[in-house]
Amino acid sequence: MLPTLANAAAVLAVQVFALVTLAPTDFGLFSIQYLLFALGSSLSLSLISEAWLRADLRGGGRAEWRDYSSASLYLAGAAGLVTIVLSLLVEPLRPVAWLGGVAVAAAVYRSAARYYSVRMGQTRGILAGDIAGLVLAVLVWVVLFSAGVRELWMMTLVWAASALAAAVLSKRPSLLKPGSLAVWGRRHGPQIRPLLRDSLLMDAGSIGTPYLLAPALGLASFGIYRAISNVAAPVRLVLNPIRPQLASAPIGTQRSVKRVTLVAAGSVLFGGAAYLGLLLVGVIPVNLGSLSQIVDFAIPAAVFVTANFLGHYFYIVARSHVTGARLLTGRIVQTGLAIVVPIGGMLVAGLTGAIWGYAGCTAVSALVWMALVLRPSRGDSST
């Protein structure tokens, strides 16, 4: 429980600090780099972590840490390099290009290493990194915030320091020859194919759509749009640290009925808390950066948070249990909705339409994932 809380607090600290520190324009710029971390983390899950878990659950054998960690290091390095290159192409991001690259690379490696340690029950590779990440995030933010700094580089430094501390205190990695990546790909190909297909489709909607909206909305409105997503950060922070356990839990049993009831109740609880929290922010006579700018969107934010909890849980379960065909069905539906609805909403009603479209498509997608997981099946397949 302590590692889960520490990890949740460490990741939440960075996102909350960014929300309450940065104005919408700078928060939009910060989100551009953070979305690259989301992309790297998504690919890491498909190519490495969940492919490794899926092979283990299906009796395909468990890869050794040296192979797992080496593949994770190569991917993390690639994610950091892409972040630097793309940031240099966006003029306002050039001053934080290298910091952002370090943050993304460290965070991607940490997420992969932590996944392995949680699955293997190795607390030594979990707690120290989680606590260090939290402490560094808080300390650096407090020092800079107290000095009156409210600029983009401040939050990028907070994020980089936190991610790097967590990565350094993770399980010590190995670095094999580049050819080891091809070996990993061949060994886990049957697991990687459906997962990667799913991830690429998911990223097209969850990451591609925001990038498409950014030029049309402008950086300030884009920052507000992305802030709605960050309101659901507590949801992901509750579920992601225990993702390996959720993914490996059996489905279709008597206990799963109780689990579904608890998940539905948790979804409503988180959505209600988000709504009340934003109402509270609206009456506090303090400017809380981008967070203060989304008070007028409290209702769609609550809908989004509720749906995000429900959908994220069932999506985690689906990644490890349902057939490749069902996984593809759910992903096509979600991606189609995630692209068409927010963009359509933006064209009709600007920022308000985009936010309501985002909340609505997330709610429909959540129900689709739940139906795909709970629907009886004669068997399962990885393709």
What does this protein look like?
It is globular and about 55 Å long. It has 15 helices and no strands. With 383 residues, the chain is mainly alpha-helical. 82% of the residues lie in helices and 0% in strands.
**Overall geometric form:** globular
Strand-pairing-aware structural class: mainly alpha
The number of helices is 15
Q: What is the total tally of β strands? A: 0
Main β-sheet, in a few words?
Answer: none
Terminal CA distance: 35 Å
Q: What percentage of amino acids are in beta strands?
A: under 5%
**Low-pLDDT ranges:** 379-383
Helix content: over 70%
Listing every helix as H and every strand as E from the N terminus to the C terminus, the arrangement reads: HHHHHHHHHHHHHHH
**Averaged pLDDT, please?**
90
What would you report as the Rg, rounded to the nearest angstrom?
A: 20 Å
Q: How many distinct folded domains? A: 2
